[in-house]
Design brief:
GO terms for molecular function: pyridoxal phosphate binding; transaminase activity. With 458 residues, the chain is of the alpha/beta class. The protein folds into 2 domains: 147 residues, Aspartate Aminotransferase, domain 1 (Alpha-Beta Complex); 275 residues, Aspartate Aminotransferase, domain 2 (3-Layer(aba) Sandwich), CATH 3.40.640.10. The chain is built from 15 helices and 15 strands. It is globular and about 70 Å long. The mean pLDDT is 97. The chain binds 4'-deoxy-4'-aminopyridoxal-5'-phosphate (PMP). 4'-deoxy-4'-aminopyridoxal-5'-phosphate binds next to α6.
Amino acid sequence: MRPNSLLELDRDHLIHPVTSFRGHEARGVTVLESGQGMFLRDSEGHELLDAFAGLWCVNVGYGQNSIVKAAADQMTRLPYATGYFHFGSEPAIQLAARLAELAPPGLNRVYFTLGGSDAVDSAIRYIVHYFNATGRPAKKNIIALERGYHGSTMMGSGLTGLPAFHRNFDVPRPWQHHIPSPYPYRNPLGGDPAAVIAQSVAQLKAKVAELGADSVAAFFCEPVQGSGGVIVPPPGWLTAVRDACAELDILFVADEVITGFGRTGPLFACETESVVPDLMTVAKGLTSGYAPMGAVLMSERIYAGIADGATPDLPIGHGFTYSAHPVSAAVGLEVLRLYTEGGILANGQAVAPRFKAGLEALTDHPLVGDARSAGLLGALELVADKTTKARFAPDLRLADRLAARGYANGIIFRAFGDGVIGLAPALCCNHEEMDLLLARLALTLDQVLDEPEVRRSL
Ligand code: PMP
């Protein structure tokens, strides 16, 4: 099919996620055709270094043939098996067991979803069920962080703390509450990590006191906030909020949809501080984007509370047709093998210091106010004034300028509207590819700086 007819078909029929409908009609689609390792190729023949692993998900890189084979073998043998009526499939059982083995200790029970949003939604449903079944039905409120992202379902988008995901959607709903993000770069206490941590704990306690301790079910957070601008809390923050939740008698839920599967270094970001959440949500790197899948992992305490609760003999009415899809599970098993036996996790850890040093070096650039990273999850925050940390005016459309220049320079990253460039290269990245990524990023920054409208707004 000729690219321009594809362009027209796309404009006339395909609705794109998290995109302005009219804006997309005017701009048109960029059709991605193939991928190999760190690189994508579009329908016009451009080779693009993917510095964002698709949507921070293709952690093992493109073109991993062993995954293709695992999927094809499973699809040939049995493309679908329901999990209803006590049925199951071998890869789903094996993957649940493998995840339980690899996850923080005690998270032994796994419910598979299709992605991250429905993992968050499922976690919320199980939490509601748990407190109802264990005789504390008043515990319904959930607290999350401003600038957090927890998906696009009605519940997940309400827990999300980003106005762009609330606008016109009538969320947050009752039960959904927010406390400020630790955000060291924009926190007046940012220079004092202990003070940032103490502040978050105090804010959580104050919110619980305001809502009434008996009415709060859980606190959800990302160990590193991704879509809110790659906000890396100070070391010790995760432990402190986890401990506060235990003290407050509320469940602690770690949303590791982005941070899981080596993105920040270890297999799960919680491992960095040996934090064990009550529930954990994962997706993205679980299958590395080769097939859709997410999961909720829960402790035995939650599982037993639901299992032995008010109506132990009746079905627990939560399920998707594609829960524990066998093809996705077969993909997940092979992806986990690649991280561990295939050396991809270790490779990501080896290249991460180069990434960190490269981003930090870019703080000398006139546009860059902050560089931050955890493993291969990183960001540059661009500011119009480094002293006041003033953001660029929205009508400058800095994100569009960055994305357009990046594309022309053969690099894809996430340009957020508030001037943050999000980066999440695949964990298979080698040193030369990392240097190329950093060079193309620097060139892009130089070119954007040279645009007269940008210069004038400095
Ligand atoms: N939680 C977090 C932390 C995420 O980053 C995302 C997706 N970016 C989600 C949930 C939702 O996942 P999905 O897009 O797979 O539904």
